[in-house]
Amino acid sequence: MGAGLVLGVADSSRSSLIQDLAWRLEAVAFDAVTLLARSFPIDAVSDFGAALVGWLGPLTSTNRVVETNIRIAFPDLDDTGVDRLVKAQWRALGRWAAEFPILDKIIADPGRVEVVNGERLATIARGPESVVFISGHFSSMEIMPAVIIQAGITCQITYRATNNPHVDARIRKSRFRYGVRLFAPKGGDGARELIRALARGECVALMNDQKFNGGVLAPLFGVDCHTAPGPSSFALRFGIPLTPMSVQRVEKARFRVIVHDDIHLEDTGDRNADIDASVRRVNAFMEDRIRDRPEEWFWVHKRWPNDVYRRQKA
Q: Is the pLDDT of residue 169 over 70?
């Protein structure tokens, strides 16, 4: 038994070393891609990403997820329309991926990022008011937190760490280049950190458009899906509004960031009912944005419950 334990530890150690080596090789590849991207003009990098992922995306198994999601959201769209939208979203996704290593260059160019209703951000920055910023995975979504920070707002930005710690460190460093320095890890610790930030009078920003197991069931495109209640819960707890934002691609690597009208939540004293009502309003906001520019949403994740996908296969 003792020998078996030693062999088990040795195998685990060897497996960890192999995993770390694989991660380091991925990090080297990440560095090479970043260096290459930063060597070319911004629009050329964006065009290359659109062409490459526009070609590769339809060949992947994820393409089936994308197509199914689109058919769930737009059941009346014919096959030609579905195929057109599938291809358009792959090209848009390719632009986002290729632009990530050069986002600081994009944001530093005042002609590339237009902010609509920027006076609302200025008001938040000047006053003691806190808000909960919400958005979805629209276009080059990383531009939104940069705009918030550059407006002078102290804001905790949530993010999902990558499995590869070496790549994650590089991603954080890349974000530092365009001013986003405040991160709150997701999960229980992250929620407590966000609550502490709001209690200090700071703002928080969260994406609220992806599947959240155990979340509130609320309709999106007429089909119930689990949605994170966190943003609504924070806003109700502190009596502050949700401030929705979205990012639109104007042309190539040029963007429009929109600060939408605040969503003021009703506090009836029934917290569960109030959160449910708020989540429904959040999903309605997301749906409106997706309908306006469907090719710019992040279609590659399964958004609805598994049984919805099983029915699509039947």
A: yes
